[in-house]
Amino acid sequence: MAAADLDLLFIEDPSNMAWLTGYDGWSFYVHQGVLVFHDVDPIWWGRGQDANGAVRTCWMDDAHVAHYPDHFVQSRTCHPMEMLAAMIRDRGYGAKRIGLELENYYFSAKAFLVLQSELPDAILADATALVNWQRAVKSEEELVFMRKAARISEAIVDHIAARVEPGVKKSDIVAEIYGKAIRGLDEDWGDYPAIVPLLPSGSDAAAPHLTWDGRTFEKGAATFFEIAGCYRRYHAPFCRTVYLGTPPDEIRRAEGALVEGLEAGLDAARAGNMACDVARALAGPLEKAGIDRAARAGYPIGLSYPPDWGERTISIRFEDTTVLEPGMTFHFMPGLWMKDWGLEITESILITPDGPAECLCDRPRRLFVKE
Amino acid sequence: MAAADLDLLFIEDPSNMAWLTGYDGWSFYVHQGVLVFHDVDPIWWGRGQDANGAVRTCWMDDAHVAHYPDHFVQSRTCHPMEMLAAMIRDRGYGAKRIGLELENYYFSAKAFLVLQSELPDAILADATALVNWQRAVKSEEELVFMRKAARISEAIVDHIAARVEPGVKKSDIVAEIYGKAIRGLDEDWGDYPAIVPLLPSGSDAAAPHLTWDGRTFEKGAATFFEIAGCYRRYHAPFCRTVYLGTPPDEIRRAEGALVEGLEAGLDAARAGNMACDVARALAGPLEKAGIDRAARAGYPIGLSYPPDWGERTISIRFEDTTVLEPGMTFHFMPGLWMKDWGLEITESILITPDGPAECLCDRPRRLFVKE
Fold first, then answer.
1. I want to staple B298 with a disulfide (CB 3.0 to 4.6 A). Which of A188, A266, B205, B316 is the partner?
2. Which segments constitute the Peptidase M24 domain (chains A, B) (predicted)?
3. 3-state SS assignment for residue A205
4. Are A243 and A221 in contact (CB under 8 A)?
């Protein structure tokens, strides 16, 4: 905040709210947020009924939980930001520099316009991803959570590999994926992942974000499974692809190039290298195989809420020159979405103090073929 | 659009996108939307890889699917709205009146500011909820989907009533709820609900939006279950409360008043009456029992994506004078979140041409007690 010359920071991103205060609840469908100060503890601010959740989950004392009346919720005549602006004025920040997450889910254009009109003397500055960047390097405690999430991811992928057969309904497999994800392992119960399981087959796998239906798996098609175990909101995304039958040469060649590219990328994912170095290492073997891959190949992961388990800071792509640091975690995600098939083999990785990236999950890095 | 004096409408709300075009995919974590014209078919616009999903799910021909390059995704140097603005200018709308959903998840403040700067000659008007309001009265086909969702909701609640016992882990019950929700019934596979299952117990039930953990259900506490079956993105939310042991008089009295209030509200939920009439009918018995309930008591439901299964138009509360029409559907949701307990008994309802509201689910309207 000091470096960004901000007197006050208002955070509406639920993952940033949780990281700053511990607040955890499915209440981000109404306006809420955290006010961050230089000199005193933050204030959680939200809907009256959710203040009950804040006093139960935040580390600040109850005097640092503020709320607005229910008739502001999804109203056509008033807006919760009127209440927030009044609180900001009352605390003496009405003519100060206030940072806002302008590019963020949940902080709407209208929220910005209301604050602008209610705080005419303030300077509203863009503080998009300011907190997200602080989250890039994970603490040891965070890594403990992510490793637990990775154990859940492995259990899900093991179950998929065992269970997917021609004639099995996709919706049944999704039900089982949720079962594994939420039962968790031993005492480590699972949380909801920030993205639902994705498992398109055959030519639908050209479209990476279609969700499931009740059709059955068929012989002669690849299905990729994009899933994440989630432990106390920390994610370890993990993707593997199952081919039922004998894969055509085209897919086998793509698998070979992709695995080679992944391994080159893991080797390049070292502290001191840049995000683009990983993207370039990956691209080499793919280009040699004639695969032109334009999409980014990964993003930081950790604490997240829907709709995305990425942290929206660094991207593993040619344009990104961010220097990698020990403790950073990424979903190294070079999905191939071709004209009439798709292939995903991915790793959740940790940048180590020296040496190549460490994979959080430990399962064969290949196409799973069931003849 | 004509009534709002709009030449062009840009829609970023995923449920409005789906309602207008059929598009269905978990891609709303990046900027995407639908351009709606007066004279030609709408254009789906989004990320390159998601255009593959659009051509598979939208009713328009493929020429009405447009996309932007991947390096615009979550970039620090460029914004997808630059591409959208260029398309709007190219089509001759650069100096026209353009409607935007200013109060909506996913349309960020930054998206608005970029459009404003890229379209200096356009008039950017607030079209928040313009499409949502068109969705208020459901078609017969939509009601078929909602009734299928209601069958799934009933199956989930039956399972909860049978399975919840002292010593059972909450995370296990959530896994089973997802199992029922997604397996669906017979050929009717289930879709993901827009809100995760909520099931706080005892004093935590004062906080309506806390999610689960791995603790066990205990004797001497009420747990409310807020769930929804979902069929092809149409929801039928349904809440019931389970008490393990003998409920204290306070909760029994609240149950009696709540059920009486619900029944009065159902009787008031008639075509021609107003939303506030339902809220007032509910409030009578509650006030008589000394329960002061400030929160709104319901909202329209139907097609939805996370983070909310409400439609964000009408609210069942004292301030809302919207006249009810046949075919409107609501979650009549008068949750009681008291200081150290919570009670939810709710109904998904349909406004009929004459007579009281029809409940989409058919299960006893009472506290479920397991001694």
1. B316
2. 146-352
3. helix
4. yes
Tokens of B318: 């004292």
Strand partners, B169: B216
Q: Which residue of B has its CA nearest to A319?
A: B71
Residues of A within 8 A of B294 (CB-CB) are: 48, 69-70
Interface test with A, best of B29, B116, B156, B168 (most A CBs within 10 A): B29
Mutation pick from A32, A47, A49 vs chain B, by most beta carbons of B within 10 Å, is: A49
| % of residues, chain A, pLDDT over 70 | 100
Whether complex ipTM tops 0.90: yes
Q: Sort strands B43-47 and B33-36 into parallel, antiparallel or unpaired.
A: antiparallel
Which of B38, B19, B13 minimizes the C-alpha distance to B111?
A: B13
Name the β-bridge partners of A33.
A45
H helices of chain B, in order, are 14-21, 48-57, 80-90, 109-118, 130-134, 140-163, 170-183, 249-268, 275-288
- The Cα A229–Cα A147 span in angstroms is 10
Please judge whether B24 and A210 are an interchain contact, meaning their C-beta atoms are less than 8 angstroms apart. yes
Residue located via tokens 């059920």: B259
Q: Cβ contacts (< 8 Å) between A297 and chain B: which residues?
A: none
Q: Do residue B296 and residue A207 have CB atoms under 8 angstroms apart?
A: no
Q: Which residues contact A279 (CB under 8 A, 6 or more apart)?
A: A265, A296, A297, A316, A317, A318, A320
Contact B348, B237 (CB under 8 A): yes
- Please report which confidence band the pLDDT of residue B294 belongs to, taking 50, 70 and 90 as the band edges: confident
Tell me how close the Cα of B192 comes to any Cα of chain A, in angstroms: 8
Average pLDDT over residues B121-148: 98
3-state secondary structure of B169: strand
Mutate which of B68, B75, B174, B304 to test chain A, going by most A C-beta atoms within 10 A?
B174
Encoded tokens for A119:
């705080």
Distance CA A321, CA B250 (A): 62
Report all structural domains of chain A as residue ranges with CATH numbers, in order of start. 8-134 (3.40.350.10), 140-370 (3.90.230.10)
Contact present, B218 and B205 (Cβ < 8 Å): no
- Using one digit for the tens of pLDDT, what is the confidence trace for A210-244? 999 999 999 999 999 999 999 999 999 999 999 99
β partners of residue B198:
B226
Give pLDDT, residue A293.
87
Beta-sheet strands, E only, within B293-351: 298-300, 329-332, 336-337, 342-343, 347-350
In the predicted model, is pLDDT for residue A282 greater than 90? Answer: yes
Average pLDDT score over residue span A47-58: 95
- Residue B340 touches partner A, C-beta closer than 8 Å: no
Interval A110-115 mean pLDDT: 98
The chain B residue lying nearest A192, using CA atoms, is B196
Question: In this predicted structure, what is the pLDDT of residue A294?
Answer: 80
Could you give the 3-state DSSP secondary structure of residue B17?
helix
CB contact A209 to B (< 8 Å): yes
The answer to whether the beta carbons of residues A97 and A6 sit under 8 Å apart is yes
A194-205: pLDDT as tens digits = 999 999 999 999
Contact B163, B212 (CB under 8 A): no
pLDDT greater than 90 at residue A102: yes
Alpha-carbon gap, residue B296 to B315, rounded angstroms: 7
Q: Chain B within 8 Å of A133 (Cβ-Cβ)? A: no
Put simply, the chain A residues between 298 and 337 with a CB less than 8 A from any chain B CB are 299, 306-308, 310, 312, 315, 317, 319, 337
Please tell me which of the candidates A128, A308, A319 has its beta carbon nearest to residue B110: A128
Residue pointed to by tokens 């974590």: B29
Evaluate if residue A295 carries a pLDDT over 90: no
